[in-house]
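Handout, section B. The chain below has 149 residues.
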Amino acid sequence: MNRRKFLGLGLAAAVLVPATTLNAIDFRKTKPDTWTAKDVESGIEALYGAKPTASDAITLKAPKVASNGGAIPVTIRTKIEAKSVAIFQDVNPESAVAVFTVPEGGIVDYSIKIKMKASGKITVVVEDKAGKLHSVEKDLEVALGGCEG
């Protein structure tokens, strides 16, 4: 591939990538009370205005015991046609961890690392295309030392 063609393709990719994020919602601006909520229920209420229903259509993977509370691997998968995915935990001062806008036709297969200062529960809420809320929870034990890792 010659240099001009390579640079042209790079420029085209740089223009297309930001265009795909134009539909992302800045939940920190649109739902600020979500990020100051001290418990999971209040955070979900501030974000969605309703309570989710427990669902076995969501897979939440995390270790039973995390040796490092500062970097706990969490994987979320679902075949639900999602509009958004939110992650909450019940031990840190603020319960909200992250909220993702799922693009049209997007696949929910997310892996992230979260911080938890102590043992507690992780809650994932998936909002489907119709606005119905689905959730799954998982208890997690953090080894002594919490987030210091």
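Note. Strands lie at 53-54, 58-61, 65-66, 72-78, 82-89, 96-101, 108-114, 120-128, 133-142. Compare this with the example in section A.
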